[in-house]
Amino acid sequence: MSARYITTTLPYVNANPHLGHALEFVEADCLARTARLAGDEVFFNIGTDEHGAKVAKNAENEGRDPKEYVDDYSGRFKSFADKLNISYDSFIRTTDLVHIRAAQEFWKRCAEAGDIYKAEYEIKYCVGCELEKTDSELVDGHCPLHPNLPIEIRKEENYYFKFSKYQKELLDHYASNPDFVVPSERLGEITSLAKSGLKDFSISRKCDKLSWGIPVPGDEEHVMYVWFDALVNYISAIGWPEDEERFKKWWPVTQLAGKDNLRQQSAMWQAMLRSAGLPFSQQIFIHGFITSGGQKMSKTLGNIIDPMVIIEKYGVDALRYILLRHASPFEDSDLTLETIHNLYTDHLTNGLGNLVARVMKLSEEHLKETVIETPVVRADSVNDFQFNKAMDFIWEHIAGLDEYITNEKPFSVVKNDPQGGKEMISSCVKQLFAIANMLAPFMPETSQKIVEAIKANKKPENLFPRL
What we know:
The chain has helices at residues 19-37, 53-61, 66-83, 97-112, 167-176, 184-195, 226-231, 233-236, 244-250, 262-275, 307-314, 316-325, 337-366, 380-383, 387-408, 410-416, 418-439, 444-456; strands at 3-7, 41-48, 90-93, 116-126, 131-133, 152-161, 181-182, 201-202, 204-206, 215-216, 219-224, 253-258, 283-287, 290-292, 295-296, 333-334. The longest helix is centred in the C-terminal third of the chain and has 30 residues, at 337-366. The chain is elongated, with a radius of gyration of 25 Å. By secondary structure, the chain is an alpha/beta fold. It has a domain at 336-456: Isoleucyl-tRNA Synthetase, Domain 1. The strands form 4 sheets. A 6-stranded parallel sheet has the order 3-2-1-12-13-7, sandwiched between helices.
C-alpha cells in the first residue's frame, strides 16, 4: 500500500461555487476514490482561498467584516463539496491559524535563501487575476481571461520573489519529467514561458492599501500577496512545518488545476518550493474550462448553468456522470441545459437505469439468492486523468449486457428451461454487480444503490426517473 496525496486548487471566495469548481472537485474525488479502491492510503485536500483585494472589496460592498464574509462563502463551498459527495480528508482555509503560521515560516525560509527583496516597480496589473502581466500575456492591451477589465498601471514598493533565479532548474525539471504537467500541450506552454524568461513577481502589498492578508514577518507595513499565501496551503494541510513526519509521509502531491492556473501551479509554486528547500510537486493535471453555447458563461449572456439547479433536477450522480464522461479532461467543453437533459435521458434513464430495472426484476422473480464476486479494480485511465475514457469502458459493459438480454432473452428462456434461464439471469446479476463496482469512484450513490439492490435481490425504485 502506498501513500498518495491529492489536492485541488483552493477556490477564491469572491463568488458562489460554479460548474468549473464542480468539475475540478469531481475529477479529484474520482482520482482519490480510485486510489483507495486500488489499496492506496489517500490524503485528499480541498479548501478555500480567503485573502486578497477582491475579497476585501466584496466585503466592503456588502457592508460586512472580511472575516464574516469569508466565513459565509467558505461555508458555501464546503456545503457544495458535501452536496457533490466529495470524499475529502481535509478542508483547509487560508484564514486558519495553522495555515497562517505555515505561510509566515515559508516566507522566512525563502528570505533566508536570499530570494526575497524589496523594490519599487511599475507593473501592469490585472485585478481579475490579481496578478501582474507581461506585454506578451496581454491581447490588445487586455488580459485574455478578463477582457472587460482595464489593466491597471501600478507603481509601489513591495517585496519581490526571485522567480528568475529558478529558470534553469524549472526547465531542467520539465525536460527530465515529461509527465510533470499533463496534458503535454500544457507542459509545452509552461516550458515556452520559462524559456522566454521568468520575471520576479511581487509577493506583498502595503497595509494602507490592503489590510486583509497575512502579515509579512518582521514588517508590519506589508501583508502577503494572495497567491504567495494561498499556494502554501498544499503543505500546511499536511502538517508542514510542525509535523515533519506527517509531511514526509504525504509529500509530494498530485495537483489538479484549471488552465488559468498553469503558471501559478507549475512554475511559481515550484520555484517557491525549491527556495524553501522542499521537493517539487509530484504531478500537475491541468483541465480546461466549461463553456455553454460556444461562449464563456456569464450573467450578461444568460448562459450560466448553476450546478445546484442541475443537482436539484437530475441528482448528484447525474451531474458527476456528465462532468466525468462528457466534459473533456484536457480541453474546453461545451454544455447546455438541452445537452444535459438529453444525456441524462439517453444514457442514465434509458441506459443504466433501465438496465438495472430489467436485471433486478428478473432476479427478484426467478432467483432466491444472488452470487456476488469480488470485482477487479480498473484504474489505468483514471490515473492518466482520462475520466471519460474510463467511463466509456463502463458504458461498453452496460451496452453489452443490455444487448445480451435483448438477444438471448433470459426472460423467455426461464419459462421453458428454468435451470438454464436462472443461470443466465445469475450471470446478468454478476455482470451488473461488476458494473456497480466499476461505477463506485464516478457515481458512488448509484453504485451503492445497485449493490444494495443486488444484495437484497430486489428491483430498486427508478434510479433515474424520466423527466
